[in-house]
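Bumping with the actual sequence this time:
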Amino acid sequence: MNRRLAWAFAAIISIGSLSNSIAADMAVKAPPPVVEVYNWTGFYIGGNIGGAFATDSTHFGITDPNNTLGLTGGLVPINFNSSPNSVIGGVQGGYNWQVAPTWLVGVEGDFSFTSLHYQGSLAPFVSRFPPANSFSNSSLRIDDLATIRGRIGWVQSQWLLYLTGGGAWMSGRASGDVGCPTTGNNGCGFNSHDPFSSNANKFGFVLGVGGEYKVTNNWIVGLEYLYYQFNNTSYSAPALDITTGAPTGRCCALYTDGNVGIYSVRARVSYQFGAPVVAKY
């Protein structure tokens, strides 16, 4: 009986040793950990917010082609320099193609709301007549900005650095007035002014740089710098009697806003659709 118990204990010990050996061998041969490779290809949509600032070169000019207002030399403009700033925010959406492990191309469109307001005034203005009670003002309000841009970027796992550029569009309102309400020896010789108000829709270009980071495979955060430029525009206004509002029959003033340059810095967040994590062993 004792001999049988001894054999049983010996068998149990042998089985335990064999199990430990197999387990140790299995631990050595376990597969390596999974490395996640982030896929940037796919559609995305999101929102952004930041600040918009104007360049110092933006200006407004008023000329008097036929010397109706008595401006010195007739064609000397009255210039207003204006450098506004504003909050900017909107939505963006596009598609990326990860064409190689470290390279990406894409296309993106965005629409932004802003309240940039360029304005200036002068009273009295320079005239070859005594400029009593003369005045002039101009303003340009920008409400919306939109772009269609290409993107090319360098990918490193969760990180993307990119260059972008394309066409831009702005929508707003331009207005102004100029005149000499005082007549007689101390005035410009007539009692009229030249008010105008017009939609200001312009096309231009946009260039920029940015960086993005994938918090998860679908959620992306980023920071983007864009520079917009729009060419100058001219507006004409009929001369009106300042008292009655009736047309005077005189030639109109010509208003010009200079090249509009705007730059913006925006934080952005996007959601990418259908971008599964690829497991790399």
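The tokens above came from a reply further down the thread. Residues 1-30 form one domain.
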